[in-house]
Design a protein that fits this description.
Number of helices: 1
Structural class: mainly beta
Largest sheet: 7 strands, mixed
Helix content: under 10%
Order of helices and strands: EEEEEEEEEHEE
Radius of gyration: 14 Å
Distance between the termini: 39 Å
Strand content: over 45%
Oligomer: single chain
Length: 135
């Protein structure tokens, strides 16, 4: 399994910005879903943004409201999450994840397939990184 390592977390005031990175230990095949999830104590892990690598088609949770952007850099094997206009409710542990798509999924539905995956569908996880938004 590819190893995933997050970086870039920290503390920021409301309205501030953070850029999270997730370095993969090897090249990520285009037929892969990659995602950022987050979790707070006592709550379930929730999807923040998911993307289908081959087409760079991305899906965002409603609470993102155009504040975040997910992207993947092939040259650096790095998944990024650029976050702006951060709110206290964005506080949590952020995880990146990867899911190779099996051959049984038709090409034309793969973007939507990635956009609808739940945490239990993902097999590769990073260790998580803390984001704290507080004044």
């Amino acid at each position: 399994l590819v190893q995933l390592v997050e970086s870039g977390g920290g503390s920021v005031q409301p309205g501030g910005s953070l850029n999270l990175s997730c370095l993969a230990s090897s090249n990520i095949d285009g037929g892969t879903c990659m995602a950022w999830f987050r979790q707070t104590p006592g709550a379930e892990r929730e999807a923040v943004a998911q993307t289908y690598i081959a087409l760079r088609k991305s899906y965002y949770a409603d609470f993102v409201t155009a504040r975040f952007r997910i992207s993947y850099d092939d040259d650096k094997n790095t998944l990024s999450l650029k976050m702006s206009h951060l709110k206290p409710e964005d506080t949590g542990t952020y995880y990146c994840a990867a899911l190779p798509i099996g051959p049984g999924i038709d090409l034309d539905v793969r973007p939507a397939y990635c956009g609808s995956r739940r945490p239990t569908n993902y097999k590769n996880w990073g260790q998580g990184i803390q984001v704290t938004v507080s004044s």
